[in-house]
Amino acid sequence: MAHKITAFVLTYNAEKYLKGCLESLMWADEVMIVDSFSADKTVEIAQSLGVRVLQNAWPGYGLQLQFALNNASHDWVFFTDQDEVVTLELAQNIRKLMESTPHYLAYRIKRQNALLGHWLKYGGSIEKNIRLVNRNQVSYCDSQHTYICEDVKRATLEGVVRHDMAPTLDFWWGKSFKLATIEAEVDYEKGARFSAWKTAGAFWKFIRRYIFKLGFLDGWAGLYMALQRSIYILVYQACLLELKRGVRQPKENPHTTKFR
């Protein structure tokens, strides 16, 4: 028996790239956005494409995901970020899976990142995250990341979502610094503290990604990516130290999606 599926996107001020994202989801039985009261034309763009629109004040990443799961019309749910595009191969494989009997309750999806116009292949840049779940069996934890609470059987589905990380380097680095700061503030409230050991580990992370995981084969883009991953850790730890010393005060309920 074929299973129907809801595809959704968490949105906030996404007018620059939302149209392409939503158009790549039109294979789903229901397409939905959960918008955090955008100030731009995000809602209008979604409505023009016939997409179901829900609005919910931002409670945190994991809780917003769970809100979407709770309000989806179908048991099987797939989600993507607002600046990603689903490839035809992945869409076909999801539809094929829905026409059969899925043997798992959660499926990882690969994500390929582009930087400086180059699709990254090395340095650990191809990520796998759980994006397709049965909402009756899986829930999302209160977290800034896509962690599911249950220890369920999971598999990886072939195909990728594509993510153009940033139009320019200054935008990319600015976004990276901002989100490292936000993540540190959120985690500090949950008990995270500065770690000199983890700070030093940022340098090993660069070596591991750039040398041992062959990031250098991606050229300048691979170098920038490896540097960003390490600098993100340094900024994150520096913010934790500022919070501990009272130099920085955590902001209430910051809105962010992940920057990976």
TrEMBL record:
One Pfam family matching this protein: Glycos_transf_2
Occurrences of domain Glycosyltransferase 2-like (ranges): 8-111
Origin: domain of life: Bacteria
Leader sequence residues: none
Recorded family membership: Belongs to the glycosyltransferase 2 family. WaaE/KdtX subfamily.
UniProt name for this protein: LPS biosynthesis protein
Source species taxonomy: Bacteria, Pseudomonadati, Pseudomonadota, Gammaproteobacteria, Thiotrichales
